[in-house]
Amino acid sequence: MTDIIHGSSRAVPVDNPFFRWWQSIDQWTLVATLALIVTGLLLSMAASVPLADTNDMPTFYYVYRQAIYGVISFSLILFLSTTSLSVVRRFGILGFFLVVIALALLPIFGTDFGKGAVRWFSLDWLTIQPSEYLKPFFVVFISWVVAGNVNSNPRAGLLLSFFSLSICVFLLILQPDLGQTVVLIGCWVLIHFIVGVSWLFSAVFFTFLSTVALIFYQFSNHVAGRLKNFFSNVIEPTSQMGLVEQAIQSGGFLGVGAGNGKIKWSLPDAHTDFIIAVAIEEFGLIVFILILTLFMIILLRTLSRLIIERNPFLLLVGLGLMTIIQAQALINLGVAARLLPTKGMTLPFISYGGSSMLAMGILMGLLLNVTRRRTSENIDSFMGGT
Questions:
Q1: Closest listed residue to residue 364, CA positions, set 139, 117, 189
Q2: pTM, two decimal places
Q3: pLDDT confidence tier of residue 1, bands split at 50, 70 and 90
């Protein structure tokens, strides 16, 4: 009765941490990422069946594993998107040094699983690919180095970042891993393009890039063979690209139906590098358009937030992380469309693999964190701690 006579009192806003986090992050990016994880899980039901059959495992053994990876990955996204900027910086720097050490130990303790490239640590129950984790940590470390010296001593930041890149490229050449090298160098170039570099350094870097390409071509028969096949006018029907082409052609716009695809039984790495071919064969170009749309949402939404960012560290980290996920998706889809030579690059959140899924979870968690809406007091406090 009192409320009726005097009017109800105005609701007092509740200081809810979850509500503040939800309002600060880009919700479209989070939803698009979750949609990619779910799509990848559904596609693994089709693409991983031949692998389970080959290894005498239950039909959906690898689907269950992918589901576990997906849950852990999304949990990492939620956790890292809620942490402070100081934690992001320390986590990235520490992670960078640990992964570089792991890469240095690969030639001694690593394995190639018969693929000609030593990229994995193999345990009885776990396989780890350090180069996947290098990408998000590399971005944070290089951005910290560059942003911390951009006003006081930009030359020192440039030289230190170039030295760090050289070490990473050298360790990737030892595997060899051309795809990860291309993504890492591309990310580094973008970061320094944003802050600006001299023509002299651009010439030196171009020489460095040419040298790296020549080393890959001369000393890696694996890489040289893929490049020769790419520029060849003849595609062997039984080769990887021949099978991918057949899968895409047979799929058409609507696909042949879930579980009815045939190429996955003959195509190597159908559950990882060429999962998009399996997806198009069974579900048609519709699923390709869906996946492409989800990546475009992440790209455009991230750019819409970064374009107004004035903090150099947040801007560089955001652009670097966005470049990695978009470049990796572009390379994977470009290979399937035969616009690029095969590089052994997974499709983020779609391809099967624990290291890829967890590393992308770290990347997207950091990306959502640095693109959050923050007050100037938060930024000033963080910059004071650098």
A1: 139
A2: 0.87
A3: very low
